Amino acid sequence: MTQLQARVLYPGTAEGPVLWLDEPLSFWGGFDPATGIIVDNNHPQNGKCLKDTMLVLPATRGSGGTPGGVAEAIRLGTAPRAIIMATADANVMIGAAVADRLYGLVCPVLELPGKGFMSLRQAVAVSASTSGQILLLARASGDKHR
Amino acid sequence: MNVDLNLNDDCRAMLSGDCGPALQFAMQLVERAAVVMGATDLVPVTFAHIDACFYAGRAHVDFARFMLDSGAKFKIPAWTNNGLVSLADENIRDPATETARGARELMQLYADLGCRTVWTCAPYQLPDGPRLADHIVVGESNAVSFYNAAVGARTNKYGDYLDVACGLTGYAPMCGLHTDEGRRARLLIDTTAIPDSLKQQDIYYHLVGTAIGLAAGKQIPAIDAVDPAVGEDALKAVSAAAAASGGVEHWHGIGRTPEAPDQQTAFAGHQPAQTVKVTLDTLAAARRSLTSASDGPVEMVALGTPHFSFTEFASLIPMLKGRKVHAGARLYISTSRHVRDLAAQKGWIEILESAGAQIIVDTCTYFSPAVRGCRGRVMTNAAKWAWYAPGMLDVEVCFGSLKECAETAVKGEVWRDESLWRELS
Question: pTM for this one?
Answer without folding.
Answer: 0.95
